[in-house]
Design brief:
Elements: H1 3-28, E1 38-44, H2 51-67, E2 71-76, H3 87-93, E3 98-101, H4 126-135, H5 138-148, E4 153-160, E5 167-169, E6 183-185, H6 190-196, E7 200-201, H7 209-214, E8 220-221, H8 226-232, H9 234-237, E9 240-243, E10 252-258, H10 259-263, H11 267-301, E11 305-308, H12 311-331, H13 333-356, H14 360-368
Parallel strand pairs: 1-2, 1-3, 6-7, 6-8, 9-11
Antiparallel strand pairs: 3-10, 4-10, 5-8, 5-9
Length: 371
């Protein structure tokens, strides 16, 4: 028998063995199923053109990118399904799967909810207040309040906001007395603060502020930041903006999920939500520095007059806040519980931050200040 004839049976055997192995492997391989896409419909409490709605869309994009085709979030602008101030109820009842807003908008449910954003926060900045929320007991307290008000949602706080201006006015505010009788827009416990200082307050949602200013229904208003204020049209109707304030110096955003819809997600997608919240929080902070500073420069070029809120007015805000805290604490045990928790955390964390942080203005003025 030639070598070629000897090799033929061997090749046939190897071929049959390989074919058998492939067949066995095919039979042993698990069936791969394509998971059905879970689609959530969210609504923000912000107009389509506002940078805040952009932040909401940024969060959704992070979810959509990380979850692939398994979880998709669509974000609609304010008013698409419900008015801004009805978002919490809509998410709780399942009319919406989720939403993007701020806790202070739920002030009517329980006054304690306004403490996530309104007031001076015992000297904490917004990032420190988020630290209190996640590491100092705030998250459990927020859940307790929602449970007490029959609200069935899963809440994530993120995105520390820069200090908000005192407000936009037809005439600059030089002293506390200048606020007497002014028709003014704000929300949350800031309503109590400006009322105590003499203003007549109307808590309008964001999209209604500038039209009300334009029609003379209000004389002044605050919203949030240079980018939002510019996009909403404040400089088109008012030319004076007072910077720095304690009415909302610690605020952050809230992402809401309907609890049943969230609980139905598998564990890995819940983790995707967790990490998307944290990523969006950092990204929002960085974007705010870039966009707010650019828009602040543009507003000045467009003729807006910016003034620092006088220290006497800031001290009047703190005095008004002290009275509000005493009154609301006596009325609402949960209010006092949240307040006491914040105060204990702020005393410790504030001492550390104030001692450790350098005065960045010293360096800024060294390079850019007038010689």
């Amino acid at each position: 028998m030639t070598e070629a004839k000897k090799a033929a049976p061997r090749r046939q055997f190897l071929h049959r063995a390989a074919a058998g192995a492939v067949g066995a492997g095919a039979l042993a391989a698990p069936a791969v199923s394509t998971a059905q896409t879970v689609s959530f419909r969210f609504q923000s409490t912000w107009p389509q053109k506002d940078i805040f709605h952009e932040y909401a869309s940024d969060f959704a994009k992070k979810i959509n990118d990380m979850a692939g085709s398994r979880l998709k979030i669509e974000v609609l602008p304010s008013g698409s399904v419900v008015p801004a101030f009805q978002l919490l109820d809509a998410v709780s009842k399942g009319t919406l799967d989720g939403g993007h807003g701020v806790v202070a908008y739920h002030y009517g449910k329980n006054t304690a909810l306004a403490l996530w954003g309104s007031g001076p926060g015992f000297g904490m900045d917004p990032n420190m207040l988020l630290s209190w929320h996640y590491y100092g007991g705030g998250e459990a307290l927020l859940q307790e309040i929602y449970k007490a008000t029959n609200i069935d949602v899963v809440s994530f706080l993120y995105g520390p906001m820069p200090t908000q201006p005192f407000g936009w006015f037809k005439k600059p505010i030089a002293k506390v007395e200048d606020l007497k009788g002014i028709k003014f827009r704000t929300v949350g416990l800031a309503v109590d603060m400006y009322t105590d200082m003499g203003a007549a307050v109307n808590p309008l949602p964001g999209g209604e502020i500038v039209p009300a200013l334009d029609r003379g229904l209000i004389d002044g208003a605050e919203f949030n930041n240079a980018s939002s204020d510019k996009l909403l049209g404040f400089p088109d109707v008012v030319k004076n903006c007072m910077l720095q304030s304690f009415h909302q110096s610690t605020e952050q955003f809230e992402i809401l999920f309907n609890r049943a819809k969230y609980n139905a997600l598998p564990a890995d997608l819940k983790k995707t939500v967790d990490y998307a919240v944290e990523a969006a929080s950092a990204d929002m902070s960085w974007k705010a520095v870039d966009r707010n500073s650019k828009d602040y420069t543009e507003l000045k070029k467009a003729g807006v007059n910016f003034y620092k809120t006088p220290d006497a007015v800031l001290r009047a805000q703190l005095a008004a806040w002290d009275k509000i805290m005493e009154k609301r604490s006596a009325e609402n045990p949960l209010f006092k519980k949240v307040l006491d928790s914040q105060k204990a955390f702020a005393q410790r964390a504030g001492a550390w931050q104030n001692d450790y942080l350098v005065d960045f203005k010293l360096a800024y003025n060294h390079y850019f200040g007038r010689k």
